[in-house]
Amino acid sequence: MRKIFPADLLARDERFIRQTQEARLADPRGRTGNAANQTKLTPEARNAPDRARALMHGIFVGEVQALEGAGRTCFDFEVGSGRDDVPFEMKMDMARQCWDEARHCEISVKLSDHMGTELGEFVENTTLYEAACNRDPVLRLTGVNRALEGLAIDVFNTMREFGRMAGDPVLEFCEDWMLADEVTHVKMGSDWLRRMTEGDAERLDRALEFQRVVDKVFSFNGFRGEDDDSPIQLTRRFREMAGFTPAEINDIAEMSRESRAEAVPG
Amino acid sequence: MVDYDADAIGAVARQVAGELGVSGDEEIRIEVDETSPLARWTIGAWGEGDEPIVLQVDGGAFEDTRRPRQFDERRTADVVGRLLLRVLDRRTPAFAGAPAEDELTLAQGVAWDVYAVGRLVRMGHEGQRQRRLYQFRNRHGFSDATDEAFDQIWNASQLTWAELDAISAGAMARSVFEPDG
């Protein structure tokens, strides 16, 4: 079986259509400020239900890719003490995460039914999985379990809040349970980052830099931040539970503000 | 900004307008804001007197959600059909009491959309029933009473504004889960 499986060979049926990150960034409408003008996801907005549907579909394809990524991490690295190896216990954590992500996929499919969304109704971006292709297990773990699963904490919390405000008990309940799993996934990333870089400051720095790069990619137009009108709200409490320091959370918030300022013309 | 063709939009609009019984002599102007990926819309003019019907839409309203910046005939038919039905409804005495567009509540607006899409579906258009039900629930509460009201509106063909508004208000009053918003 092939190791380090490329994103463009991921199995999808004809319902799914992909958009590359390059194409997404090249969309001139993203630079007009319209995307950044999207406000916090609350039921008061006229298009709120459709925005929630699109976001939920993004969560669904993200769960599929998270499952694929965690599965690849179980397989791509050998157990051992070498630089390219991983501890057996880390593989066990990734296997447990696969179990969680598979359950999240099932929940997301049922939520899509609930919200009237067809699978594949919205374009798929595979950036999440691409971050899970790094050949260094520490960088991969940091990019996926801290940057992307950290974003998942923010997204799930935002959706849970939306469900609560809209009086949708199904959405609120499902998001709450998935949020609990995501906090665990990020905590795994924080713990393994510390353990696998113990006594290797250079590797720790490279991993944190990779995390910043991934966070930057997903701060497109500053859609995730702490401003009142940020579509996705940065969630301090759950991030701290998952091993983020206040300074790290401040860095993400600042990065988001910068991205937002760049997106909105003059 | 987007790969849309005015002729293609016009063809869809002509087809839908014809199905809805809009006179072929009546001018319909559709203004598309290509810079916006959002899906907002407004009815700029109702076609009263000699003026044309004017529909103003964000480019995202006609966009293929699976292929960004590409035209989607099905979504365009849905949007144009819904808006034209609202125009036609307002022209009838049965809807004389309807509030102005900017005075409609979210619940009233969604109820009217459901009434329009239900009719479009019976004419052979796709309607994404569950999506419309989700929108309706968001505005009326997630309850059995809401679902019953949705079915009543979705299956109706000859409602007056007073009847439509009463069903909508009744669903909100009977709903167990009141939206915070």
Oligomer designation = heterodimer
Low-confidence stretches of chain A: 32-37
For the largest beta sheet of chain A, what order do the strands appear in spatially?
1-2
In angstroms, what is the radius of gyration of chain A? 18 Å
Largest interface: A-B, 38 and 35 residues
**What is the average of the pLDDT values of chain B?**
94
End-to-end distance of chain A, in Å?
52 Å
- Characterize the biggest β-sheet of chain A: 2 strands, parallel
Overall number of domains of chain A: 1
Largest sheet of chain B: 3 strands, mixed
Mean pLDDT of chain A: 91
Quickly describe the structure.
With 266 residues, chain A is mostly helical. Chain A has helices at 21-26, 48-76, 88-115, 127-131, 137-166, 169-196, 201-217, 236-241, 246-263, and strands at 224-225, 232-233.
Which descriptors would you attach to this protein?
heterodimer; A: 266 residues; mainly alpha; Ferritin; two-stranded parallel sheet; 9 helices; globular; B: 181 residues; alpha+beta; three-stranded mixed β-sheet
Helix-strand layout with pairing:
The complex is a heterodimer of chains A (266) and B (181).
Chain A: H1 21-26, H2 48-76, H3 88-115, H4 127-131, H5 137-166, H6 169-196, H7 201-217, E1 224-225, E2 232-233, H8 236-241, H9 246-263
Parallel strand pairs in A: 1-2
Helix pairs in contact in A: 2-3, 2-5, 3-6, 5-6, 5-7
Chain B: H1 6-20, E1 28-33, E2 41-46, E3 53-58, E4 63-64, E5 67-71, H2 73-90, H3 106-122, H4 129-140, H5 144-154, H6 161-174
Parallel strand pairs in B: 1-3
Antiparallel strand pairs in B: 2-3, 4-5
Helix pairs in contact in B: 1-2, 2-3, 3-4, 3-6, 5-6
Description:
The complex is a heterodimer of chains A (about 270) and B (about 180). Chain A has helices at about 20-25, 50-75, 90-115, 125-130, 135-165, 170-195, 200-215, 235-240, 245-265, and strands at about 225, 230-235. Chain A is an all-alpha fold and about 270 residues long. Chain A has one domain (about 40-265): Ferritin, CATH 1.20.1260. A two-stranded parallel ribbon of chain A has the order 1-2. Chain A starts with 20 loop residues before the first helix and ends with a helix. Mean pLDDT of chain A is about 90; it is low at about 30-35. Chain B has about 180 residues and is an alpha+beta fold. Chain B has two domains: about 5-90, no CATH class; about 95-175, no CATH class. Chain B contains six helices and five strands; from the N terminus they run αβββββααααα. Chain B has helices spanning about 5-20, 75-90, 105-120, 130-140, 145-155, 160-175, and strands at about 30-35, 40-45, 55-60, 65, 65-70. In chain B, the strands form two sheets. Chain B has a three-stranded mixed sheet with strand order 1-3-2, with helices on one face. In chain B, strands 4-5 form a two-stranded antiparallel sheet. Chain B is globular. Chain B starts with 5 loop residues before the first helix and ends in a 7-residue tail after the last helix. At the A-B interface, helix 2, helix 3 and helix 5 of A face strand 5 and helix 4 of B.
